[in-house]
Amino acid sequence: MVSARAAQVLVASNRGPISYALDADGTLTSRRGGGGLVSGLSAIGSEANTLWVCSALGDGDREAVRRGVGEEGVRMLDIDAGTHADAYNGIANSVLWFVHHMLYQTPLEPVFDAEFRRQWGAYETYNRAFAQALAEEAADGASVVVQDYHLALVPGMLRELRPDLRIGHFSHTPWAPPEYFRMLPDDVAEQLLRGMLGADRLGFLTRRWADAFARCCVDVLGGTGSTRIGVYGLGADAEFLRRRAHEPDVDERLATLREQIGPGRKAIVRVDRTELSKNIVRGLLAYGQLLTDRPEWRGRVVHVAFAYPSRQDLAVYREYTAEVSRVASAINSTYGTGDWTPVLLHVEDDFARSLAAYRLADVALVNPIRDGMNLVAKEVPVVSEEGCVLVLSREAGAYEELREDAVGVNPYDVVGTAAALHEALSMSAGERGERTKRLAAAATALPPRQWFLEQLNALREA
Ligand code: G6P
Fold first, then answer.
1. Whose CA is nearest to atom 14 of ligand 1?
2. Per the CATH hierarchy, to which homologous superfamily does domain 238-443 belong?
3. Which pTM value belongs to this model?
4. What is the pLDDT of residue 40?
5. Is the CB of 40 inside a 6 Å radius of any atom of ligand 1?
6. pLDDT tens per residue, range 379-392
7. Does domain 7-234+449-460 sit in CATH 3.40.50.2000?
């Protein structure tokens, strides 16, 4: 680890690039973290004088901190487990994520009660712990890039501790329009915006989210002050993906998947965290609708759906996970035959198998109700072997860049999505190939390393 006040470039995020599992016999094993943010930032590598500050997330991570086990260039903060749970599950994932993805069922939610206020206190404590650690580690005039809604208060807090630093903040989520954002209690809304405006520069994935943020600032605070706002559309890492997708473990899974799908059948692929905003249930319903409306596809197509567990501490995520399985089983029992299983649902996280599915996909279904970017939409065209039609929600950030060559859908419209799936399955191989080439070019326009460096350079010029 770099010594105190020596880091020139610092990244701060809740989930870090690495996590530890504690085995029954007391050994610690490390693995790479997942999610859009970590995939984006991991290409940065461990350059000299760069420090990544993140949370210790489970028993394994906490034990690693206690034993002083770690990776060069990464500092894990062992924040009190209760405080972290209130900040992460309570505020970040149950409030801020819900606001920005507009997930509340508003007749009954949200209710900002005393329990919310208690959790908000934990969120402040957790943000302060990050600000303090960054203040300790940063060299004079260093650049600090804070990531995401978990750490919205950090820029303002850090600015007070270390006015010499150049501070940036990047949002990997959508940003809610003011009329939705203002459901938050006024003082909380103000604190969040002021916290972020403590940065010299703010980054968003698309113009749409950046504009929504600016409108919230105008409505709540009267303006954005001197903070500059930029748009950086994180792209796929083509070099990494193409290499990784042809390693032996991926080849092996490709063979298994081909066997499970069966010869001559088309594959509609989806790969997601089992996340409320990903709209997996409506995706399955749309596939069921396709089999109803277009019986000619029965027996000739398989929906390969990978839905990896996420945020299982939250009851609504557990319920959603169960609903995904229930709907998939219902389709299989309605339409399945002795030699055809219409939906192949896999829930155990396996990156190599995801890549294998990208390689063979005829159609990729990416239909979130709202998504900051959605990297799956950008990864599939890069890895696809025979060309793949992208059925893409117009509410995904990626739609701004990929709309020309994707088949766009309204994610709430199940009948419309079924029609889009039919259109995608029926597209000629020639057109599919041409579109995939153009999609891959657009998807890789700003690869992760460049995405990060552009922000860093902008910050240094600030
Ligand atoms: C989104 C967020 C990331 C987060 C990821 C996984 O992509 O923007 O910050 O890392 O989801 O979520 P998790 O709660 O598992 O860290």
1. 311
2. Glycogen Phosphorylase B; (3.40.50.2000)
3. 0.96
4. 63
5. no
6. 999 999 999 999 99
7. yes
